[in-house]
Design brief:
alpha/beta; five-stranded parallel β-sheet; 7 helices
């Protein structure tokens, strides 16, 4: 049986963002686990405009090429890791917009979170995301990587210098993602 496809989704689209190096670290950690076929999905590159489809996403009557491409991207994933900052006690609008574009494509897929920010490590953003993901019939994991004071783990070269706690938390989250992706496979196949 083939490995599940994991999309590591970088949520922040802000210039100068820390999300890309953190997302690259998460991707590299997932690749090193050997549990998944891994793709990095950068919402800054995807470049979705504010939801502009005339029909409700449940209908899957997409009119725009960017929506059809986004649908195909999300459809091919079996699991997700959302890499998100915390903006004003929540997650960025770019991620909410990306989630709202689609409906069925998210169903029965587990999602883990790598969050970053100040003292809270992005945990308030993840709390909001759990509700949205549950509504989309995703399976949000309890296991997560929370990075407080994230600027301290990004070196002068722009690369993440992960702590043992980050690496350990990532390992636990990825193992659970792989387990849940397999358990939910029959639901996705249906």
């Amino acid at each position: 049986m083939s490995k599940p496809v994991l999309h590591v989704v970088v949520a922040s689209t802000r210039p100068g963002r820390a999300g890309l190096p953190i997302g690259e670290w998460a991707r590299d950690r997932a690749v090193a686990s050997g549990l998944f076929d891994v793709e990095l999905v950068d919402l800054a590159e995807v470049g979705l405009p504010l939801l502009d489809e005339p029909h409700h996403p449940r209908l899957k009557q997409y009119e725009h090429a960017h929506t059809k491409e986004w649908s195909a991207t999300v459809d091919r994933a079996d699991a997700f890791v959302f890499v998100t900052p915390e903006y004003n006690h929540s997650f960025p609008a770019s991620l909410k917009n990306a989630l709202d574009y689609l409906h069925h494509e998210w169903h029965h897929k587990p999602v883990g979170f790598v969050s970053y920010g100040g003292v809270s490590g992005g945990t308030r953003a993840v709390n909001g995301l759990r509700q949205v993901c549950s509504t989309l019939r995703m399976f949000p994991l309890l296991e997560a990587v929370n990075i407080p004071f994230h600027t301290e783990v990004i070196g002068e070269d722009g690369a993440v210098k992960a702590s043992e706690v980050m690496d350990s938390a990532a390992g636990v989250m990825l193992a659970e993602l792989a387990r849940m992706a397999e358990a939910l496979r029959p639901l996705r196949a249906a």
